[in-house]
Specification:
Layout lengths: L1 E2 L15 E4 L1 H8 L2 H6 L20 H10 L2 H7 L5 E7 L5 E7 L7 E14 L13 E11 L24 H14 L4 E4 L4 H7 L4 E2 L2 H13 L5 H10 L2 E3 L13 E4 L2 H7 L2 H13 L2 E3 L1 H14 L6
Parallel strand pairs: 6-7
Antiparallel strand pairs: 1-6, 2-5, 3-4, 4-5, 5-6, 7-10, 8-10, 9-11
Helix pairs in contact: 7-10, 8-11
Length: 312
């Protein structure tokens, strides 16, 4: 899977629909002097002056140990990648980088590229009961996630997905286990992403849920009614407007919004609440979809005559 965004022009925070971000640096500034911040036991205290740490806590060895614990290293070795190199960094916008290479640290040897930001968010009040106190959530935003096999080629069995430049590695489940361990360690409520493509939302859906229960209902209803079609077919169906709402006869448009991987009890409680389940079921049971597969194939062929699949 490959999800890309120009982080300077199109950061994930600019795409959030149902959360209002709070800059943690502003929060700290209100309560502390610059010297207090520099010496405090809080957010910045875990960042040694001489060592880059992923999410201000994990060095390369720590991350390699977690990768082994969650089965990610074993999976990569089963794919022929034995000599792994872990590289962490942080840029001036406080985005954390985790890159995994094989054999040597070179662009052509890159297997995994994860870029995360650490932010605080207040959910939109419309998702809660009237008068219910809103909470501030400490979230990790997935700014970029790329998992690719640089030695593999696309084939009929492994077709190219929109936005994808190389075949994947089949290790998303292990990476998510790793991220869960990481989030518990830094005490976060969960992970947040806004998938650019329908297939990204589907792949995340094994661990993530849309914060908006109506969006989750639409996703699950499409997967129910398009059962038997491939992930690529469904993604192209959304792009070509050939997945139709039976009731209206109109194409179902993919509407990117926040998907959440809950870690904390309070976030898990939100997704298991009666209010969330009720709204989800209303949409899931109401929606019915049809897929004009032949039209999708025809339109897909027209599109790839003028555009590269990796640029969609």
């Amino acid at each position: 899977m490959r999800q890309e965004a120009n982080l300077k022009k199109n950061p994930k925070k600019a795409l959030l629909k149902y959360f209002q971000p709070i800059d943690i640096r502003d929060v700290l500034r209100d309560d502390m002097t610059s010297m207090d911040i520099d010496e405090s036991f809080g957010y910045f205290a875990r960042m040694p002056r001489r060592e880059r740490l992923f999410l201000n806590m994990y060095n390369e060895k720590n991350l390699l140990d977690i990768m082994k614990e969650t089965g990610l290293v074993a999976h990569l070795k089963s794919r022929g990648f034995d000599d792994l190199i872990i590289d962490v960094d942080q840029d001036e916008t406080l985005i954390h980088y985790l890159r995994v290479y094989y054999d040597e640290k070179a662009a052509e040897n890159l297997l995994i590229d994860v870029r995360l930001s650490d932010s605080r968010f207040v959910p939109d009040s419309s998702f809660f009961e009237e008068g219910q106190n809103l909470v501030t959530l400490d979230m990790i935003v997935i700014e970029w996630l790329s998992i690719q096999d640089p030695r593999a080629k696309f084939s009929t069995d492994r077709p190219q997905l929109p936005g994808q430049s190389k075949p994947g590695l089949g290790c998303l489940q292990y990476l998510m286990k790793m991220m869960y361990v990481v989030a518990e360690g830094v005490i976060k409520d969960g992970f947040m992403d806004v998938p650019d493509h329908m297939h990204g939302a589907v792949m995340y859906s094994k661990n993530f849920k849309f914060f908006n229960p109506a969006h989750e209902g639409v996703l699950r209803a499409i997967l129910r009614d398009a059962k038997g079609y491939s992930l690529g077919d469904i993604s192209w169906g959304m792009i070509t407007g050939t997945i139709l709402d039976v009731k209206t006869g109109q194409p179902q448009v993919y509407d990117p919004s926040e998907q959440i991987y809950p870690v904390s009890k309070r976030l898990k409680k939100y997704f298991s609440s009666k209010r969330y389940e009720r709204r989800f079921n209303e949409v899931y049971k109401k929606k019915k979809y049809s897929f004009d597969y032949e039209k999708m194939v025809r339109l897909r062929e027209e599109i790839i005559k003028t555009k590269r699949t990796e640029d969609l």
